[in-house]
Amino acid sequence: QPQLQEAGPRLVKPSETLSLTCTVSGDSIITSNHYWGWLRQPPGKGLEWIGSIIYAGTTFYNPSLKGRVSISVDTSKNQFSLKLSSVTAADTAVYYCAREGRIVVLKYFFDYWGQGSLVTVSS
Amino acid sequence: QSALTQPASVSGSPGQSITISCTGTNSDLGSYDYVSWYQQHPGKAPKVMIYDVSKRPSGVSNRFSGSKSANTASLTISGLQAEDEADYYCSSYSTSSSWVFGGGTKLTVL
Fold first, then answer.
1. How far is A23 from chain B (nearest CA, A)?
2. Are the C-beta atoms of residues A94 and A40 closer than 8 Å to each other?
3. Of A114-118, B2-6, B88-92, which range is least confident?
4. Which of A46, A102, A110 sits opposite B104 (nearest CB)?
5. A87 pLDDT exceeds 70?
6. Which residues of chain B lie closer than 8 angstroms to A60, CB-CB?
7. CB atoms inside a 10 Å sphere around CB B104
8. pLDDT tens-digit series, residues A11-67
9. Predicted confidence band at A5 (pLDDT cuts at 50, 70, 90)?
10. pLDDT higher than 90, residue A106
11. In the prediction, which pLDDT does B29 show?
12. Which among A12, A44, A106, B86 counts the fewest CB atoms within 10 Å?
């Protein structure tokens, strides 16, 4: 079964860009026909979807973050990545990568998740 | 897009049943039957317990069930067990091709 693992800096300065990568094992980003998403959870708060991408590059983003967020995929490494620009303390959260199955495989939920990575925005 | 509305907390004794509500709008719960529920234990990643309103993934206990009427979805847990104590989140696909989540409900097993 798929396993997802987030990686990236745990501390980011205000106004800079947060960058995370999710490495997928046990599944192929290319052949699985799933979308691959990023979600986040501020400490003590609820979940927020950030955006999702499929291997061909089609992306969907949360309208509230559009303009600051970019998700890309590297099929050669079976990875996908998140960039969130102009961060503030409000972007401090546990960031999760997860698999979802919209449109193609018609599985409208997130079935596999990474363990999460706490990213703190602070000077 | 607004978050779905859930009660902040619910509680029940072992063996009892509880229901968690999730209220949305015509743009999410009212437009799609793509409602899912996630269980999250402290420090862990969420786990899907219900999808497509009322379907259970393989391995999830049949004590968990879901339903929906108009813009409100519900998760019912019957025969409460200590291990059910966790945070529960509802989620829905929306007309903007986005996912919207509820604020979460803390379930306490007394």
1. 16
2. yes
3. B2-6
4. A46
5. yes
6. 97-98
7. 25
8. 999 999 999 999 999 999 998 899 999 999 999 999 999 999 999 999 999 999 979
9. very high
10. no
11. 97
12. A44
Determine the residue among A3, A4, A47 to mutate to test chain B binding: the one whose Cβ has the most chain B Cβ atoms within 10 Å.
Answer: A47
Tell me the two tokens of residue B90: 């509802």
Residue among A45, A63, A108 whose CB faces B1 most closely: A63
Of the candidates B102, B25, B31, B100, the one whose C-alpha atom is nearest the C-alpha of residue A60 is B100
Burial class of residue A98, CB neighbours in 10 A (0-12, 13-18, 19+): buried
Token representation of residue A4: 């997802």
Name residue A38's beta-bridge partners: A51, A97
Whole-number percent of chain A with pLDDT over 90: 90
Virtual CA dihedral for A67, B38, B68, B99, nearest 10 degrees?
10
Residue of B nearest to A40 (CA): B45
Does B1 score more than 60 pLDDT? no
A-chain CB neighbours of B89 within 8 Å are 46-47
Helix, strand, or coil (residue B84)? helix
Which of B44, B52, B55, B99 is the mutation pick for testing A, counting most A CBs within 10 A?
B99
The string over A29-65, giving b where at least 16 C-beta atoms fall within 10 Å of a residue's C-beta and e elsewhere, is beebebbbbbbbbeeeebbbbbbbbbbeeeebbbeeb
